[in-house]
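Reviewer 2 asked us to include a model.

Predict the structure of this chain.
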Amino acid sequence: MTCFFESLLTCALFTAFVALMARNPVKMIFNYPPAIVERAKSLGLVDESNKPKGKVFFAKKIAALLVFGIILGLIVRFLNDCHSFWRGALLAYFIWCVVNWFDALVLDCLWFCHDKRFVIKGTEDMTKAYHDYWFHIKGGFFGMLLGIPASLIAGLIASI
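Predicted model (structure tokens):
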């Protein structure tokens, strides 16, 4: 039951984060389908310095995975009383996947694809691109891969 409430809480926190980001959707442009990104670039709305490439970008992603791994490790260690590497890693991965698929299916496919607050000015005619569900589903599978290193870190934290 604890895992159920942890999943609900983490999904709620992630939803709040997305809601804050929705105030300025251009800041999240590199999470949009490629056709919308290209249109936003052609309109001069995209700051190329935020492009997801380069050493700084990957360093931030690695740091975020470390932080999430540590947080998940502390959660499974102290809230779920996990004291073994594999039990901690698997439970952390389960929580990660719940949030990941909540993001892909609920936040992206249901909310993002249909809420006008995420539509960037100048791309209003791109309904098909905004309804590119497969883009978000593929992102969900990629998110599962990202959860592996974070979950391994969580397992290490749980076993200490």
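Residues 2-159 form one domain. Helices lie at 2-21, 34-42, 55-79, 85-112, 127-130, 133-159. We have added this to the supplementary material.
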